[in-house]
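Batch manifest line 158
LIGAND: coenzyme A
JOB: complex structure
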Amino acid sequence: MTIPASEENGGGVSIRPAERADLLAVTHIENASFSQPWPFDAFERFLGEPGFLVAEYEGDVVGYAIADVSRNFGRRLGHLKDIAVHPDRRGVGVGSALLTRAIAVVTAQGADSVKLEVRRSNDRAKRLYREFGFEPLRRVSGYYEDGEDAIVMLNKLE
Ligand SMILES: CC(C)(COP(=O)(O)OP(=O)(O)OC[C@H]1O[C@@H](n2cnc3c(N)ncnc32)[C@H](O)[C@@H]1OP(=O)(O)O)[C@@H](O)C(=O)NCCC(=O)NCCS
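JOB STATUS: finished
ARTIFACT:
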């Protein structure tokens, strides 16, 4: 697939809030992307939240992101909880478009920084996050069920 490049969103890709009708496609991409995928009902719980976003290309859901905001010692902290792009649709800017919008959503909700956890071995995701200004904050030993460590990354939005 060739998606025409665009400065803003990978071209031809639209980012919009997720709807119930998207959930099967979302869980399909989740299952294809992670060894410990979230179940269907985990996504269901985020329906209606502004930070549950899908990327659509030619009528198909090709990726999604989930971000929310929590209070943390009087500040609002954004959290990127999940992001994935269909394996056949990676490398053309869909993930960047989702990340851009997810950061905009949590910023609009008053977050002054965004954190995320990423597998230590997930170099591609880490590189993408660094391009967006995320910096490694700490390592969490054995964070994932298979024993792999997580790297917590933080993006100070100011
Ligand atoms: C991580 C992930 C979401 C990135 O999504 P993506 O759509 O491939 O991301 P992008 O296309 O925006 O950027 C990825 C690469 O494509 C490049 N790219 C961006 N726009 C491009 C374009 N128009 N044409 C060609 N390449 C482009 C980027 O420079 C980047 O290059 P890099 O791999 O050298 O860093 C995706 O790889 C994925 O779903 N992985 C599995 C799930 C996962 O690991 N999620 C993260 C959990 S923490």
